[in-house]
Task: structure prediction
Amino acid sequence: MNQLENQAQLDTLKQEREAVLILFGGANCGVCQTIKPQIDNKFSVKFSELEMVYIDCEQLQEVCAQHGVFSLPVVQVFFMGQKFIEKVRGFSLLELEQEIEKTYVKMKR
Result:
């Protein structure tokens, strides 16, 4: 999972890639640091075309605010530049996986 440094990188990714998962987190967020490798390990195998990136909201507060992220963690999933899924704070990785799978399979057809 690559860490983004600015809004321009994120805009480019959303334009160039069909599927993008963004994890908004922070270095001091224990839940964020726990789910980051879990998402990366599990989803990178199952959804090979899903580009996964991490944004540290402690460093990029302006980018997080532009995306409506005011609590952590937040996962947003974009397909063809449009946000399809958003999970905030307490969410199940299994539920997230199932939601991604529904849209991902339709996209692959």
About this structure: The chain has a mean pLDDT of 94. The longest helix spans residues 30-46. The radius of gyration is 13 Å. The longest strand covers residues 19-25.
